Amino acid sequence: MKIEAVHLREVNMPLAHPFETSFGVTTGRRILLVELICEGRSAWGECVAGEHPYFSDEMIDTAWHITETELVPRLLAADLNDGRDCPALFEQVRGHRMAKAALENAVWELDAMRQGIALSKLLGGTREIIPCGVSIGIQPTPEKLMQKIETEVAAGYQRIKLKCKPGWDEAIFTEARKRWPDILMSCDANSAYRLSDAPRIATWDRFNLLMIEQPLWYDDFYFHTELQKQIKTAICLDECIRNRRDAQAALELGSGRIINIKVGRVGGFTEAIAVHDVAQQFGVPVWCGGMLETGIGRAHNIALSSLPNFSLPGDVSASQRYWTEDIIAPEVTVSASGEIVVPTSPGRGFEVLPERIESLTVRRQTLRRNAAVSS
After folding, report:
1. Domains identified in the chain and CATH numbers
2. 12, 34, 125, 131: which has the fewest Cβ within 10 Å?
């Protein structure tokens, strides 16, 4: 495959509802989309870097710069066999995994289109239906949170995840368990706690949580190991798992018993599959996390979630939970039993809406192969 052109677009999309975590409140998203042109086909990727370097050290503006000046020139000068060529192609550029993932995932999508198969099948997926959970942000009041939980339980979601932070944890877990004693419930701290909080966190065992996601430092294995020894509830690792080596090290240390795989966080489908395989070898389940993606990134998450070890409900919820209008058709929907059907048509399985994207675009750049090769 010789990529002929890469279109970069920044789209600005307001969220249907504010989303609050321990990092702060998000009301809208600036999103970098990439479009690859090859042999008359168009394939898309989405960079999940946020507006600020809070979840990771990447942000949309650094991602745009690295994509334009470092990654795209390498891509345009290459002759690719498939998406697995991308990590070696981008290896000289350290870090910037979310920027790399946007381009690599688009290459995988392009390859699926060329072969006339579903992206899920190309990735090695075996599931025809994936179970869905939902992530509920911090709310203005506990009662507002209870209303949100009630809505999502009624919608059929199979797992309810509550964002938490010091001062917004035990009281809401207590009330949620009182009202819904049998739902599958977890919490996500986004690194808001420290090991000194271990005695208090240990009391959360009484809430029968599926997991406590990334409670300690975003780059830590050792102290998560110490915390896991002191609590019965499984720790789920998120931010600290950047690649397959991290996954192996963390699982050998006993830092957690579940892994959240975010394809942007680990640098693309190739590494996401490798992390999946490492966890499977350890007998550790994985699930697909969300990053407030548009339908393009959401379609890629659905394809990834079809791999066999994605045995826990992920955060791949319906488009309407985040956007009044998505940029794909049909929009992602979740059944009354909390499931998504994995598309079987070639490529991503959803149509991209160019006019909708154009109406949201605030910045653009096009880079072409001839210029990259000649330079």
Report:
1. 5-116+352-374 (3.30.390.10), 121-348 (3.20.20.120)
2. 12
**Backbone phi, psi, residue 31, to 5°:** -130, 135
Comparing CA positions, the residue from 227, 297, 285 lying closest to residue 255 is 227
Sheet containing 24-38: order of strands: 41-47, 24-38, 5-21, 361-368
Asked whether the beta carbons of 136 and 322 are under 8 A apart, the reply is no
Instruction: Say how far apart CA 146 and CA 142 lie, in whole Å.
Output: 6
Rg (the chain; Cα; Å): 20
Q: Comparing C-alpha atoms, which of 129, 124, 66, 131 is closest to residue 272? A: 124
Tokens 């990334």 sit at which residue? 214
| Nearest residue to 335 (alpha-carbon basis) of 180, 184, 158, 183 | 158
Residues 232 and 283: their CA atoms lie apart, in Å, by 18
C-alpha angle 199/203/205, rounded to 5°?
Answer: 125
- Roughly how many angstroms between the first and final C-alpha of the chain, as a whole number? 20
Peptide bond into 330 cis (omega under 30): yes
As a whole number of angstroms, the distance between CA 20 and CA 27 comes to: 9
Known active-site residue 163: yes
pLDDT in tens, the chain (375 residues): 999 999 999 999 999 888 878 778 888 899 999 999 999 999 999 999 999 998 899 999 999 999 999 999 999 999 999 999 999 999 999 999 999 999 999 999 999 999 999 999 999 999 999 999 999 999 999 999 999 999 999 999 999 999 999 999 999 999 999 999 999 999 999 999 999 999 999 999 999 999 999 999 999 999 999 999 999 999 999 999 999 999 999 999 999 999 999 999 999 999 999 999 999 999 999 999 999 999 999 999 999 999 999 999 999 999 998 999 999 999 999 999 999 999 999 999 999 999 999 999 999 999 999 865 443
Is 232 among the residues known to form the active site? no
Q: Which of 100, 161, 163, 165 is catalytic?
A: 163
Contact 326, 294 (CB under 8 A): yes
Q: Look up residue 16 and give its two tokens.
A: 């249907």
DSSP assignment of 180-239 equals -TTS-EEEE-TT---GGGHHHHHGGGGG--S-EE--S-TT-SHHHHHHHHH-SSPEEE-T
Rounded distance between C-alpha atoms, residue 57 and residue 228, angstroms: 26
| Residue 128 per-residue DSSP state | S
